[in-house]
Amino acid sequence: MPFFRSPRRLATFVYRKQLRVFEVLNKNVLFNQVLNSTFRSSKAFEDRFDLYEHLNRCILQNAPIDYLEFGVWQGATIKKWCDLNRSGDSRFYGFDSFRGLPENWNETHSEGCFDVGGRPPIIDDSRVAFVTGLFQETLVGFLKNFRNNHRLVVHIDCDLYSSALYCLATLHPYLVPGSIVVFDEFRVLEDEFSAFCDYTRAFYRKWEGLAHTAIYSSVAMLVKE
Fold first, then answer.
1. Is residue 149 classed exposed, middle or buried when 0-12, 13-18 and 19+ CB atoms within 10 A define those classes?
2. Model-level pTM?
3. d(C-alpha 25, C-alpha 45), whole Å
4. What is the helix (H) or strand (E) element at residue 163, kind and residue range?
5. Long-range pairs for 145-149 at CB < 8 Å and ≥24 separation?
6. Fewest C-beta in 10 Å: which of 6, 52, 69, 100?
7. What ranges make up the beta strands (E) of 136-216?
8. Which residue ranges form the domains of the chain, and what is each CATH number?
């Protein structure tokens, strides 16, 4: 085949360096497709804490939950969920190295950002436990003894594509229909959103959008299949 008639061979010759702008444009098209197919009936909220309150009151009805949060930092989100869901049978697990990002995220958040000296936040609630270390080093061991007795709520605040995809893939057997997954940085197309798309495609998952904040930064999704 003549060189100029093979688009791949031509692209390999012309574009020898990564062109991020093409990736972002393509992901933006995919992002809008996901919004149109998944979030047509979802409720909009100005604040992510209002979104959490809606999930707990209207979807979960304050019933017992097993809550797994990936990316705790100073603990504002997990504390909010503890305040909202008062069931004594609920369990809240926060996963974080508390040493900051293990790799660069973007131009303003480099490796080590969000470091709190390896110390989990202090939350005066016996239902809360922290799992300290990289997700890739702790999650499998945690799941060996984890018994999913109640509805599962997973909060993905990993920021990084690698971390978000690892958590979703590892939790796959536990993400049964009815489970809820919240993404904190869904609008960041190359990270949590890309991890969501790749996981969905690899594991043939189907979702229903439940709620979102402005510009779909934070979103809540229900596992359908």
1. exposed
2. 0.89
3. 26
4. helix 161-170
5. 146/174, 148/66, 148/174, 149/64, 149/66, 149/89
6. 6
7. 151-156, 180-183, 207-213
8. 16-223 (3.40.50.150)
Lookup: tokens for 41: 């009936």
Torsion angle defined by CA atoms of residues 111, 117, 123 and 125, in that order, rounded to the nearest 10 degrees: 90
**Contact residues for 187 (Cβ-Cβ < 8 A; gap 6+):** 31, 193, 215, 216, 217
Tokens of 92: 């809240």
State the Cα–Cα distance between residues 165 and 170, nearest whole angstrom: 8
Residue count of the chain, please give it.
225
Cβ within 8 Å of residue 4, ≥6 positions away? 10
pLDDT in tens, the chain (225 residues): 455 566 666 556 555 565 555 566 678 999 999 999 999 999 999 999 999 999 999 999 999 999 999 999 999 999 999 999 999 999 999 999 999 989 989 888 888 999 999 999 999 999 999 999 999 999 999 999 999 999 999 999 999 999 999 999 999 999 999 999 999 999 999 999 999 999 999 999 999 999 999 999 999 999 999
